[in-house]
Amino acid sequence: MQRKRMSQTADILLTGRDMDDRTLHLREENCVWTLEDEETAEEREIKAVPDYLWKAAKYIESVGNWQGTASELLAAAGIENAKPNQFTYNMAKYFDKVFEPKNIRYKTHRKNKVRLLNFYGDGGDDDIDITQLSGWGIPERPSPSSPSSLGALEGSKHGRSVATGQPAEKPTGTAPNPCEAAGA
Q1: 8 Å CB contact between 61 and 117
Q2: Domain boundaries, position 17
Q3: pLDDT by residue (tens digit) across 53-74?
Q4: Do both 76 and 114 map to the same domain?
Q5: Residues 133-174: pLDDT tens digits?
Q6: 66-68 and 114-121 as β-strands: parallel, antiparallel, unpaired?
Q7: Residue 175 and residue 142 in contact, taking contact as beta carbons nearer than 8 Å
Q8: Of the chain's two ends, which shows fewer C-beta atoms within 10 Å, N or C?
Q9: How many Cα neighbours within 13 Å face the side chain of 103?
Q10: How far apart are CA 113 and CA 83, in angstroms?
Q11: Among residues 70, 65, 53, which one has the least CA distance to residue 114?
């Protein structure tokens, strides 16, 4: 329990092997202690994150990809109460709390004695619209099997289906879909 002398408030820090760390905020009134608030360790960590990191993450999220120095980012986001070295230190320290939930990633490299930050979106497969691939030269139909691969299947002891392990059927000219064979 933490309490300043003659104070009517106190904090009880709960820790344990089989429980999450918590802090209980208590207030004393007429010799009766009442629980005012309960705070988890994660909530305490989020409170410790400087406000300028949330503001920078919001700015990067609004513009998409961004590249430049920490000083340039602070100026572009309108952040005046942080130094560039403080920003980069805290960015690395709280990256998983501020930037990662927004799917913002970053790379850093030196160029001409200046450290450049490159922020970009996650770039996962969810962002790709398959209907946009028509102009990329990807055929709509699978290509037929080559004569050499057909001959290899017929005379080989290894001519087994990857999906089922059974002997491969005579090819029909189109490649089998492994997702259909696995029942997916």
Answers
A1: no
A2: 9-46
A3: 999 999 998 888 888 899 999 9
A4: yes
A5: 455 555 555 556 555 555 555 554 555 555 555 665 555 556
A6: antiparallel
A7: yes
A8: C
A9: 9
A10: 18
A11: 70
